[in-house]
Amino acid sequence: MDATETRPLTPAGRRIAAAAEELFYERGITGVGVDLIAEHSGVTKRTLYNQFGSKDHLVAVYLAERDRRWRSLVQTTVDARATPRDAVLAPFEALATWSETHTRGCAFINALAELPDPSHPAHRIATAQKLWLLDLFETLAAAANCPAPTPLARQLLLLHEGTLATQPLPLDTLTEATNLARTLIASATTQ
Amino acid sequence: MDATETRPLTPAGRRIAAAAEELFYERGITGVGVDLIAEHSGVTKRTLYNQFGSKDHLVAVYLAERDRRWRSLVQTTVDARATPRDAVLAPFEALATWSETHTRGCAFINALAELPDPSHPAHRIATAQKLWLLDLFETLAAAANCPAPTPLARQLLLLHEGTLATQPLPLDTLTEATNLARTLIASATTQ
DNA sequence: GGGGAAGTTCACCGATCAGTATACCTGCGA
DNA sequence: TCGCAGGTATACTGATCGGTGAACTTCCCC
To answer: Rounded to an integer, what is the distance from CA B157 to the centroid of its chain?
Structure first.
């Protein structure tokens, strides 16, 4: 049913997925053909289709894998914080780490820009990713004794997505966002 | 020198530009071929190339025209505000109007996602558009007697871009962003 | 030693891509 | 009346697109 859970992948399948992840992110999904992915992973196009069936499925796998990695990084960062209040800010610290190696913005926003068809699996994955982060913010805020976690979570998500969207600009928006997030968290969790 | 100022356009040229604007925004730039644009504007492909020379140039015209319209709407909204402090919030009200008819996110962010080549004219136009808004926020903040207009402007830009980026989500992020923006403006322009 | 899964090789499909060539038509202003 | 700009019609290029068919090898496990 779910097109993204038919693993485990074969060795060739893993190389294909790795090449697809880099190429799709760096050059855009519609800008990268299956022939290029096959070539970059040292594999025949036939093997690619034996493993993934279609380009759309490969795109779904690319986004799902990226989602998995991002959530893992965030969760690790959250778990490393000493106090609940520090934990609310953790996703912004994770974003700092993430942005060092991912400078082409948010892969999910980019995917939605390229694939207008709402029935494409990319839409479901991208929406789920954002809502997961929103929910995490809310949970963390509640754990930090914030009396109104919902609006705070939405504000933090806005800052988070705004940071990613302004990445191409010659401004250090991440620092600005983190500072403002800290202030918002502090004033929303008065105790 | 500038590929976007060789107007005025002929009647056919205007129809082409109008069709390109709608199709590029709704279906993505790489997802729309020149044949489709020619067909939608009731024009021959030859005429399209006589008027615009290349698809890349047509893309640049599309973005430049969109930029022009957005700035015009924002400026009109700003001018209609009674007090300088209200004026700082005006771009968010303009965004509310704009979003009624443009539901596929920010055309400039989308264009950057689809066109990874930094030398493509789209990058210059998109960057200029964001920096223009940042500068406008700063100018408006200064006019509202904000002692530190630069950080406030960056915060407002973050909220603005975050709103656009979260547009596909089933949340009313615009209201949240506007409320927070109002609070930030109020507390940054104490007098 | 037999069988099946993984992968290769290579040729092929129809469609679409951006862009061009050539010849023709039409209306308007000098 | 001439010329020219704007536009049409149609056909074409070479490249690339996503995807398939069929036969072959290689290796591991029963």
So the answer is: 13
Q: Which residues of A touch B134 (CB under 8 A)?
A: 169, 171
At residue B38, φ and ψ (nearest 5 deg) are -60, -45
- Nearest CA to B66 out of B25, B36, B30, B35 is that of B25
- Name which residue leads in pLDDT, B154 or B191: B154
Domains assigned to chain A: 60-188 (1.10.357.10)
Characterize B124-150 residue by residue with b for buried, 16 or more Cβ atoms within 10 angstroms of its Cβ, and e for exposed. Answer: bbbbebbeebbebbbebbbebebeebe
Q: How confident is the model at residue A7 (pLDDT cuts 50, 70, 90)?
A: low
Q: Let me know: does B185 contact B155? Beta carbons within 8 Å.
A: no
Q: Is B173 exposed, middle or buried (0-12, 13-18, 19+ CB in 10 A)?
A: buried
Rounded Cα distance between A62 and A4, Å, is 9
Label residue B1 by pLDDT band (50, 70, 90): very low
Q: Is the peptide bond before A8 cis (omega within 30 degrees of 0)?
A: yes
Under an 8 Å CB criterion, which residues of B touch A? 26-28, 30-31, 104-106, 109-110, 112-116, 123, 126-127, 130-131, 134, 151, 154-155, 157-166, 168-171, 173, 176-177, 180
